[in-house]
């Protein structure tokens, strides 16, 4: 019986992961330009954050990885992939490390169960995942995307502006939503099973 319960639990975790990944992928077809150069909102980071905090590190990493592979094949090959190593770093790896948010799963759920908002912890652990993603894009940007920089601009400065800007834009998106939708976030982060 215990085995059956366990395998049902992992099937639920897996199914949620598939739904979240599909949602994250679908959201990338919604317009997401910030209006500032190629700084972009990545709406899928919101469901991914919730999923990683709800189900923990390993499911978070796995869902991020699959999201990255999907994004690479469905969108990246249209211009975002310059060579195999850069493609690997900026898609499966950079999207995968978003799952590091799951490092906060136990602490965030404990805080919420203790009747707290969990807001500070949600923001802190989301920042870890977002920072890991945009750090990889920053490194890749400095090495591979320099030719897109305005003339005479250092590629590393350019990469810092674009990828640091995207990190900040997505942190603002997360913070605003986590504050406005705190009650909903809490309900989504605590699993019923
Ligand atoms: C300066 C610069 N420009 C473009 C890229 C490529 N990049 C940045 C962020 C996210 C992604 C994945 C697809 O959303 C990519 C390919 C860069 N790293 N740096």
Mean pLDDT: 95
CATH architecture: Orthogonal Bundle
Number of helical elements:
8
How can the largest sheet be summarized? none
| Content-based structural category | mainly alpha
Q: Stretches where pLDDT falls below 50 for ≥5 residues?
A: none
Strand content: under 5%
Global outline: globular
**What is the ordering of alpha helices and beta strands?**
HHHHHHHH
How large, in whole angstroms, is the Cα Rg? 17 Å
How many DSSP-defined strands?
A: 0
Description:
This protein is mostly helical. The protein is built from eight helices and no strands. The chain has helices at about 1-25, 45-55, 55-75, 85-95, 105-115, 120-145, 155-180, 180-190. Helix 1 runs antiparallel to helix 2, helix 1 packs parallel to helix 3 (about 55-75) and helix 4 runs antiparallel to helix 6. The model has no long low-confidence stretch (mean pLDDT about 95). The structure holds ligand 218. The site of ligand 218 has 12 residues, from helix 6 and helix 7. Ligand 218 binds near residues 137, 141 and 158.
């Amino acid at each position: 019986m215990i085995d059956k319960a366990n395998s049902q639990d992992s099937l639920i975790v897996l199914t949620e992961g598939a739904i979240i990944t599909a949602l994250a992928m679908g959201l990338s077809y919604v317009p997401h330009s910030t209006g500032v150069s190629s700084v972009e909102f990545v709406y899928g980071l919101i469901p991914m954050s919730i999923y990683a905090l709800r189900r923990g590190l390993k499911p978070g990493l796995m869902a991020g990885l699959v999201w990255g592979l999907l994004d690479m094949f469905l969108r990246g090959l249209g211009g975002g992939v310059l060579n195999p190593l850069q493609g690997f770093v900026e898609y499966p790896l950079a999207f995968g490390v978003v799952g590091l948010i799951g490092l906060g799963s136990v602490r965030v759920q404990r805080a919420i169960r203790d009747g707290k908002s969990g807001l500070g912890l949600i923001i802190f652990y989301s920042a870890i995942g977002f920072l890991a993603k945009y750090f990889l894009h920053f490194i890749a940007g400095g090495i591979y995307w320099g030719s897109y920089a305005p003339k005479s601009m250092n590629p590393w400065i350019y990469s810092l502006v674009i990828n640091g800007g995207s990190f900040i834009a997505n942190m603002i998106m997360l913070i605003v939503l986590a504050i406005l939708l705190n009650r909903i976030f809490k309900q989504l982060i605590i699993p019923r099973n």
